[in-house]
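re: ur question from earlier - yeah i can do the single chain one, its not a big deal. heres the input i used so u can compare w yours
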Amino acid sequence: MSNDQLNQLTAWSTFATAVVASIALLVAGIQLSRTNEAQREATAQDTYKEYLRLAVENPEIADGLAHLPQEGSREAVKYGWFVSYFLHSAEHAYLVDPSDEWRAAISNQVCLHKTFLKASEYQSNLKYHYDQRFRKLVDDALTKC
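and the output i got, formated as tokens:
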């Protein structure tokens, strides 16, 4: 084999190695992205499942309240934290997967807690603790309750 042929073979070999390495890097990046997405989805599911467990354990507040308890009372504090937990878990699930299924599930729960969510404390202060896209979902749901 001549030196020119050997140099050409070396160049092609180097090029092929670079292409294979690039493909491997791309595949690894895609796999890492999918793994991260699956982890976020699992976390969202677990968080929402925990909210549902709390709802089963607290049926007296799980379906919402027609009238808010007296401000500062134990019942008001408990209910406020319950709704906050719902909002946190729902926001997490929605931001990971804004599908129609999650929108419907969250909207249904929003309507159960509409008395709290329409009250001035939430509307003027607490709602701004959440992502703008999630706030829009809650606001849209409240108009349809």
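Residues 88 and 122 are 14 Å apart (CA to CA). not sure if urs matches, ping me
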